[in-house]
Amino acid sequence: MAELNTITRTKIAQVAGSKASGGSFNRSRVAIIDTPAAYTAPAQNDTAGTELYVPQGARIQLPVVLSCAAGAAGGTLSIGIRSARTKVAIDPTAVLNAAPINAAFNGPLNTGTKLVNGQYYTMPEDVELYLTFGGAAGTANQAIRAEVSFVAP
Predict the structure, then answer these.
(1) Confidence band (pLDDT; 50, 70, 90) for 120?
(2) CA–CA separation, 128 vs 132, rounded Å?
(3) 12 forms bridges with which residues in the sheet?
(4) Is 76 in contact with 66 (CB distance < 8 Å)?
(5) 73/93 Cα distance (integer angstroms)
(6) At CB < 8 A and 24+ separation, what contacts does 21-24 make?
(7) Could you tell me how far CA 34 lies from the centroid of its own chain?
(8) SS3 for the chain, per residue?
(9) Fewest beta carbons within 10 Å, which of 23, 32, 84, 95?
């Protein structure tokens, strides 16, 4: 039987001098995003920084676990990545793409645009995880928790 790990991506990595990147095989860490107990209702498309950073070369693991209390009708939450240095967005839906937060929810999600369909994506630089409230204006003081696991380089 042919060995599966000799397919193209691994072969390219071998030619470049490495068998597997640090983002493929290393320590797993978790960034936990919790909303504060009291905060003002976010407007539609408001963003919120988390001050949680994922290092260059890291890879997000699936699934992202989201837990939330019921919120405004039509409300969604996205988790994106932006440059830790400049705060410029790299992809606003990289980790979580428009997850509904209108009803109470607790479970795994695999909707990030850099994570779906078996994509291989390593962080291009040190990035900050940040939130975007979409779909509708949010609810004040809505409890939201997201657990984002990643393999550090």
Answers:
(1) confident
(2) 13
(3) none
(4) no
(5) 20
(6) 21/57, 21/122, 21/153, 22/57, 22/151, 22/152, 22/153, 23/57, 23/58, 23/59, 23/122, 23/123, 23/151, 23/152, 23/153, 24/59, 24/151
(7) 14
(8) CCCHHHCHHHHHHHHCCCCCCCCCCCCEEEEEEECCCCCCCCCCCEEEEEEEEECCCCEECCCEEEEECCCCCCCEEEEEEEECCCCCEEEEEEEEEEEECCCCEEEEECCCCCCHHHCCCCCCCCEEEEEEEECCCCCCCCCEEEEEEEECC
(9) 32
Answer yes or no: CATH 2.60.120 is held by domain 27-151: yes
Q: Quick one: average pLDDT of 122-132? A: 96
pLDDT bucket at 12, cuts 50 / 70 / 90: low
pLDDT in tens, 48-96: 999 999 999 999 999 999 999 999 999 999 999 999 999 999 999 999 9
Is the alpha carbon torsion for 96, 100, 105, 111 positive or negative? negative
**Residue indicated by tokens 């209390």:** 69
Please tell me the distance from the alpha carbon of residue 3 to that of residue 114, in angstroms, as a whole number: 27
